[in-house]
Amino acid sequence: RANQAVGYPSKRETIFESVRNFQRVHFNACPHTSESVKQRYMNVVRRGRGPKRSKKLVRAYYAQAASEVGLIDTPRGLEHR
Q: Which of 9, 15, 16, 36 could potentially form a cystine with 59 if both were Cys, beta carbons 3.0 to 4.6 Å apart?
């Protein structure tokens, strides 16, 4: 299995980093992702490069979205209410 195939963020605020690690490390290395899907993804990424967004704001967006779907931080990690 390729690196970063699975990620278990322990808090809502670390979901952003888990997604970024998946995108940077795993996605292109995964032998189960077809070249056509990888190419479509890269095209979307290139087209989507507009104004830079603060990582702080994007991290907050991910954490808020996680809250809205019922994820909560606990001493044991993330749980769904």
A: 16
**Residue 29 main-chain phi, psi, to 5 deg:** -90, -15
What pLDDT band is residue 36 in, cutting at 50, 70 and 90? Answer: very high
Please, where are the H alpha helices in the chain?
15-21, 35-47, 55-68
Chain segment 46-74, per-residue pLDDT in tens: 887 667 778 889 999 999 999 999 999 99
Three-state DSSP class for 48? coil
Using only C-alpha atoms, what is the Rg of the chain?
Answer: 15
Report the b/e string of 9-30 with b at 16+ CB within 10 A.
beebebbbebebebeeebbeeb
